[in-house]
Design brief:
single chain; Rossmann fold; 2 domains; 6-stranded parallel beta sheet; elongated
Length: 422
């Protein structure tokens, strides 16, 4: 994706350096425009060392091309603010200062950044990240400017700032979001994704992810090392395709799931035990088109003791019960139209093992994942859990349709595209 980053005069401008580095590492083409205020906080040329293709200063609109003789040599528009506006697949301004915000809302074209803003057509998403003192952010004039841009331009998307300790020493809202959050979500905030009119996307997806926790007493519990990253990538891919998404996640699943709250069609619910996850899943199955069971749900629950079990009594005080088999319950109670994806975390992904799993739970797609926590004496290598990739095997209608290593991002794309075809 071609991403144009505008950097204005806020103390959080330094974070734009890491954002550009992260986006380029993820394979995106990035160009940068800085305002005169931004140059007080960052050295523009540093963006080039961090992967940006080009960086432009406020007055560069009048230096491009450097002479009329060069116009005929250009393969692109000789007017810089038009060229950049047409180049970008997405335009983000981060941080957005109160001063630049005011210029944007007034329709000013007093530097390169504001000129590009005016020249950007309505098919290109414009993502704004306001960052300033909390009192400035709350000021009715600033809020009026933000609301005016939202109402006037259908392609403007305003990301609410985070709360916390501000540079001025005050506590409140106004922080630029975490760099990793911006890197992981910015390329997917594409609110004007073109689709055929006769194929509107109105599907709803329910995803479970992460590990459940089975408490033994107020001190001890049983869980596994599943990170929930698979669910994060599944949710992000579904949001990218315009689907309504709800994720039911284990309490300790990756905090990246909260990054997705920037999307209005996303909801995350945190749960603890297998029983709590079961109740959350079965509550409203009838409103979804697709259920993806990627959570590492524990098989065991304890009859909990209200007090800490003493060491001497542990051997005789581990009453256990089998936790709910959520996927089996879903298959039993689901509406006929609901498509289902099941995950099987196994150390053995043989055809025999997968076939036995599928026959007990005949989902539309069974995803076998080779896993190992790396804690036993036989192997110290972690596989599947907490990694960005794993070895997978797909089974559909008792047949293996795919097997091999995939990144979790690629896995999510493969699964979602499989069901978007229907």
């Amino acid at each position: 994706m071609k991403i144009l980053i505008g950097v204005s005069g806020s103390i959080s401008a330094y974070k734009a350096l890491d954002v550009v580095r992260g986006l380029t590492k993820n394979g995106h083409e990035v160009k940068v425009i800085v305002t005169s205020g931004a140059t007080k906080f960052v050295v523009p040329e540093v963006f080039l060392y961090l992967g940006a293709l080009e960086v432009f200063k406020p007055e560069d609109d009048f230096k491009y091309p450097s002479s009329y003789k060069e116009v005929d040599k250009l393969e692109r528009n000789p007017i810089l603010h038009i060229d950049l506006a047409r180049w970008a697949d997405q335009f983000a301004i981060l941080p957005l200062s109160a001063n630049t915000l005011s210029s944007l809302n007034q329709g000013s074209a007093n530097d390169l950044l504001t000129s590009v803003f005016l020249a950007t057509n309505e098919e290109t998403p414009i993502v704004l990240y306001p960052a300033m003192n909390q009192s400035m952010l709350k000021n009715p004039l600033v809020q009026r400017n933000l609301n005016s841009l939202r109402e006037s331009l259908s392609n403007v998307y305003v990301i609410e700032p985070d709360s916390g300790l501000l540079a001025c020493g005050e506590e409140g809202s106004g922080k630029l979001p975490d760099v990793d959050k911006i890197i992981e979500t910015l390329p997917f905030i594409n609110i004007h994704k073109k689709r055929p009119v006769n194929k509107p996307v109105n599907k709803k997806v329910l995803i479970t992810t992460g590990a459940t926790i089975s408490p033994l007493d107020p001190v001890r519990f049983l869980t596994n090392s599943s990170s929930g990253l698979t669910g994060f990538y599944l949710a992000r891919e579904a949001l990218k395709e315009g689907l309504q998404v709800k994720v039911i996640a284990g309490k300790a699943a990756t905090s990246k799931l909260e990054y997705l709250n920037v999307f209005p069609n996303f909801e995350v619910q945190r749960v603890v035990s297998p029983s709590e996850m079961s109740r959350a899943v079965l509550k409203s199955l009838d409103i979804y088109n697709l259920y993806i069971s990627s959570a590492a749900i524990g098989d065991i629950e304890f009859v909990q003791d209200q007090n800490k079990i003493k060491k001497a009594n542990i051997k005789d005080n581990l009453p256990i019960k089998q936790s709910p088999d959520i996927l089996a319950q879903v298959l039993k109670e689901k509406p006929q139209a609901l498509k289902t994806v099941g995950f099987a975390a196994e150390t053995d992904l043989s055809f025999k093992v997968l076939k036995e799993k599928w026959e007990r739970k005949p989902v539309d797609l069974l995803v076998g994942t080779k896993v190992h926590n790396g804690l036993t004496s036989e192997s110290s290598e972690v596989s599947g859990f907490s990694n960005d990739s794993a070895y997978y095997s797909f089974m559909e209608n008792k047949e293996v349709t795919f097997e091999g290593p995939l990144s979790k991002k690629s896995l999510a794309q493969k699964i979602l595209q499989r069901f978007l075809r229907d």
